[in-house]
Design a protein that fits this description.
The chain is mostly helical and about 210 residues long. The protein contains eight helices and two strands. The chain has a two-stranded antiparallel sheet with strand order 1-2. Strand 1 and strand 2 form a beta hairpin. The chain folds into two domains: about 90 residues, no CATH class; about 80 residues, no CATH class.
């Protein structure tokens, strides 16, 4: 089962609006095979080990796939179980106390292990189709922008739907992103305030609409 955003109230911010349902549903792309998913996971884990300067990373079995909605809390819990003070929300983690130099090697190995055990499903890192860019636009305009407004975040005016789709296809990333603007607006906020905003107003549409499942 694909993990979905909770879109529920939090203790440190406004309640989420009612769950979003697309006004223009799309047909999801064909699913990747298990072999394709595992091959992409292995490539991602290898790159991650290199980024952490782990020369000979251990072989780590996949426990379960995560999504952009639960990767952060899952990795944070895994690292907490390994003895590190880590918090997580959506697809991000933070170390409130920092990681000391004496702990860096042990932390990197634990981080790699958790990353491999709870790999984000590579499905969600695929390049968007035109239909998916359109779905992202509809979600942003119809649901995300009003949700962020409840947290005091005002974003720039969107381009037209057609322009957004064309720019996304060309650039490979959104040239107008309410989520990125919200991140900048909340830079000076506490982790709890950031987490409440991100958990209440997920930056991505539910995977059931974007990817099927």
């Amino acid at each position: 089962m694909i993990a979905q955003p909770s879109q529920t109230d939090t203790s440190t911010g406004p309640a989420a609006p009612p769950p979003w349902v697309p006004s223009q549903p799309i047909v999801a792309p064909s699913a990747l095979s298990d072999a394709e998913l595992m091959a992409l996971r292995d490539e991602s884990a290898k790159s991650f080990a290199q980024s952490l300067d782990i020369v000979d990373p251990p072989v780590v079995a996949l426990v379960r796939w995560t999504s952009q909605f639960d990767w952060g809390p899952t990795i944070a819990q895994c690292l907490q179980d390994a003895g590190f003070n880590i918090v997580g929300a959506a697809n991000g983690i933070s170390a409130p106390d920092g990681i000391g130099a004496a702990q860096s090697s042990a932390f990197n190995l634990a981080y790699y292990t958790c990353f491999a055990e709870y790999s984000m499903n590579p499905t969600f890192n695929q390049t968007y189709t035109a239909d998916q860019w359109g779905l992202q636009y509809d979600y942003d305009v119809e649901w995300l922008v009003p949700c962020l407004a409840a947290f005091g975040v005002t974003v720039s005016q969107p381009p037209t739907r057609q322009t957004f789709i064309a720019q996304g296809l060309q650039a490979g990333f959104p040239t107008w992103s309410p989520g990125s603007e919200a991140d900048l607006a909340y830079q000076a906020k506490s982790w709890d305030e950031n987490a409440a905003m991100i958990q209440t107003c997920p930056f991505d549409p539910p995977n059931e609409y974007m990817w099927g499942g």
